[in-house]
Amino acid sequence: MTVRNRGALAAMAVGAAALTVAVLVACGSQPAEDVGAEQAADLASATPSPTAGGPSVPVTRGELPSGAETVPPTRLVIPAIDVTATVNAVGINQKTDEFEVPPSVDQIGWYRYGPGLEADTGSVVIAGHVDSATQGKGAFWRLRDLDQGDTLTATGSDGKERRYRVVAREEYQKTKIPLERYFARDGKPRLTLITCGGPFDAEARRYRDNIVVTAVPA
C-alpha cells in the first residue's frame, strides 16, 4: 500500500510492509459507483490547513489540534464486511520515505502524525493491505463493498468504543487522490479508511487506484 508525497508527501507501498500516502493497498475487483463524494468534501475545511511551505501530509510530528492527549485507535470492527482487526500506530520509514504499515495483512495501520480518536477536528486515517501474494486476503479485502449507512466501531487506547457511520466511498487514480483533504487536521471529525483498487499493474506490482471510505461519528 502506498501514499507518496507530492513534493514530500509520505508513501505507502503495495504487498510490502509499507504503505505510501498516495498509493495504498488494494484488491483487484472494481467497486460500485462512487457514493457520497459531496458529503466527504463538505467535511473538510473550506481552506487547507497552513503547512508553512511543508507537505500537505506531515512526515514528522507537528502541532496537533489543542485539547486532550492523543488517543490512538487499537481495534477496528466493521460487521458489514466481517472485519475485526488490530490497529497499529504507523509512521514514516526514514530509509524509504514510505508510510509503514504492519507486515501482517490482517492488521492495519493508523497514521500517527494525524489526529487521534479524541480529536474534535480532522481526519483519523487508517489504511491497510487488501491482499498479499504470500499471505492472501488482507483486512481491507472487502473495503470496496462498504456503502452509505454501514457502521463500524473503533476502540481507542483508552478502552472506549466509538461508533461511526459510512457517508462516502470513492475511487481515485493514485496520482489524483486529494491527500490534503483526507489527511487534514482540520474540518469536521471523521474517520478515513484507505486501501487500493482498480486494475493490477503486473510490471509495477501494484494496483492503479485507491479506495477511500469516509465515516462520521454515529
UniProtKB/TrEMBL annotation:
Active site: 129, 196
Keyword Hydrolase included in the entry's annotation: yes
InterPro entries: Sortase, Sortase_dom-sf, Sortase_F
PROSITE patterns the record matches: PROKAR_LIPOPROTEIN
GO MF terms, alphabetically ordered: hydrolase activity
Ranges in a coiled coil: none
Region (Disordered), start-end ranges: 38-71
Protein name as it appears in the record: Class F sortase
UniProt source species: Micromonospora endolithica
